[in-house]
Records
---
Amino acid sequence: MAEQSGYAKKVLVAGATGKTGSWVVKRLLHYGVPVRVFVRSEQKARSLFGDAVEVALGNIQDADAISRAVSGCDGVISALGSSAVSGEASPHEVDRDGAIRLIDEAAKAGVRHVAMVSSIGVTKWFHPLNLFAGVLNMKFAAEEHLRQQFSAAGRSYTIIRPGGLKDEEPLQHRLRVEQGDHLWNGWTNRSDVAELAVLSLWVENAANKTFEVINEELEPQQSLAGYYDKLSG
Ligand SMILES: NC(=O)c1ccc[n+]([C@@H]2O[C@H](COP(=O)([O-])OP(=O)(O)OC[C@H]3O[C@@H](n4cnc5c(N)ncnc54)[C@H](OP(=O)(O)O)[C@@H]3O)[C@@H](O)[C@H]2O)c1
């Protein structure tokens, strides 16, 4: 049954057919939020979500398709991610240019809030993960663009930097949240990343925050909203 959040505006999920993105959709539906997904394959979207979501087709290289997808949305959550060193799913194409295109189209369309999944280590150009086509550098460029575009009055952003991603149920771990990109390792459940992204739509203290998040010990959580109270400006 949908849990009430008091938030009932439409949200676009980019990367919705990915492992984190599909958790974002599930958590939005859990709270009764109307969802539109921006996907490359309608068949994949329908197999995951049935008729519970609106589908906007396109790839992140296509500004017109993105413009149609963000139209009428109050929020955008991006769980986009690259999976190849070159081509349409590369870090350069997806994590940087694609994310920046999404942010720009969202701003033009009057979207109020954008939440984006980034990564721990994103400020460290010398991190070994950058051997994958500079993926962290690409993500950092997109982060900077989001902070610049969405910190203006009437807009807000939330940037979530998880550790290594795992596939477990949400709300099972106490979390450690940090700021300043000092963490070098740790695990985070995709479902908790999704939950934090969804909560950022209506939790006031999530506005204009960039933070890292990793699991601490197993300890069932009633809500993750309180973690936003631990963050500073
Ligand atoms: N893996 C880790 O341990 C780790 C750690 C920290 C942060 N992260 C970050 O967390 C985020 C989510 O990771 P994940 O493993 O859940 O991602 P994922 O399962 O690989 O999903 C990536 C999504 O991006 C979409 N995508 C890729 N290229 C696209 C394009 N050209 N146009 C439109 N959509 C495109 C994919 O669409 P299709 O479904 O059509 O392929 C998919 O929906 C990523 O940004 C990742 O870098 C990952």
---
Amino acid sequence: MDTVRNVKINYPVKYYCLSPAAIENSLLAKAVRSIGQIFDIREIEAGSEMAMPFNSVWIHSIKLPDNETSPDLLLEISYWQDNNLAKFSVPLIGAATATNINRKVYLLYKTITGQNPNPWGVLRGVRPTKIVHKLLAQGLSMANITTRLMEDYLLSSEKAKLAVEVVSNQMSVLEFSKQQQEISIYIGIPFCPSRCLYCSFISSIIPANNDELILFMTAIEQDIDAVVELMNNYNLQVMSVYIGGGTPTSLPDEFFACLIKKVRNNLIQPNTKEFTVEAGRPDSFNDFKIRIMSEFGVSRISINPQTMQQKTLQSIGRNHTVEQIYNVYAKIRSKKTMVINMDVIAGLPGESVSDMINTMSKIAELQPDNLTVHTLAIKRGSALHQKLDEFVFPVLDDVRRMMSIADSYAREMGMYPYYLYRQKNMLGNLENIGYANQGSACLYNILMIEEKQTIIGIGPGATTKAVDVNTDHLTNLYFPKNVKSYIDSLHIYTAKRQQLLERLFV
Ligand code: SF4
């Protein structure tokens, strides 16, 4: 029996430390560290008990019970309460796997701290919906899957229902993509007009020097040619092509036109369903680029305001105005050939719930076909992370309300959630959700998040995902992130990609 009493700590736990004895048990150490991540609790070095801060939990010993034939572990936890160090222990009965230990430790933390649990329970991964697909493949009904998500993975009922709803909405889109030879292609262009405060991507500011760009474009073209060879050798059928980054439209006109034409003429096939350009920044568009995209068959485009509040756009390093968003949107909408996605972010510094209502009401007036709602993630590599003290962030309850407001607006616009993913260090441990009007969901986004189809990566930092559709086995190949390293080692990486895909398609 668990020896946990009904104890509560009156303050949120900010730190935990593992004793050397606990660290020696790698399974437990891994599980406890993952719980630290789930609750955003920092680990501090094990030292004397008295050095332990008052708002901390000390996981200080782990031992086998007396009966050494049992695999069960005993977890002992000390915590500060009313200036006294209290202690209790709990057997991790049957907790011989990392998931079980995660559950046990998660429930323990909940008991001793009284903190609200992470809405995504013990799930830490980027792709919570993959579990739904796995359980579906085992023959479970959606109702049973919802229950399993809540009981086994400790999701809140709201998140369990969301995950199941998202997968239900994906099913019709995924119906045809079950042939090994069906693939998608991703092209990464790692340049932007300026750097957003919260960005931790590899993207850099577009070089002013044409010579650098010529070298880059030559490498991209060679990379595309190598993929064309693969397509011909293995009779590949390209379902979707996605040019992302970065901001591909930040390329100067002539380079951008070359890229779009090269893709159109070499990678797009008669049965290709989507050709997407993540245009992202309204300050990277002009009439020429819009015309090129329209003429050469781009079928989907993202215009990403992130917010419709001018004060915020300036403070987060996006050098464009709300006015530019309206102008670009009107021009692209007039072409009537492209599905338009817009991105917003909940939790931006300095924003309130009423800012989110204002942003969403303006977006609702524009009526895009897709909406992607992100929760701000404060990533280590971002400028925001270095300057946290300079900004005021909305409280977590407000971030949750912002996500809920965006959800209500999306549904009022006739949209449904069709993909979601999570990242580390997201405010409130929430998620990013893609919404779409009926018939306008982005196939590539689903395939990429659910890892249901091989995606061939082109460009710096691109990942090739080789998926065996019969077993769902996935092998990733990462291209170098640095542009110079990518150019210099392209021949090595295209050869590796060739070998990886040969194993899959021959
Ligand atoms: S547009 Fe995207 S990739 Fe470019 S700097 Fe901003 S967040 Fe980074």
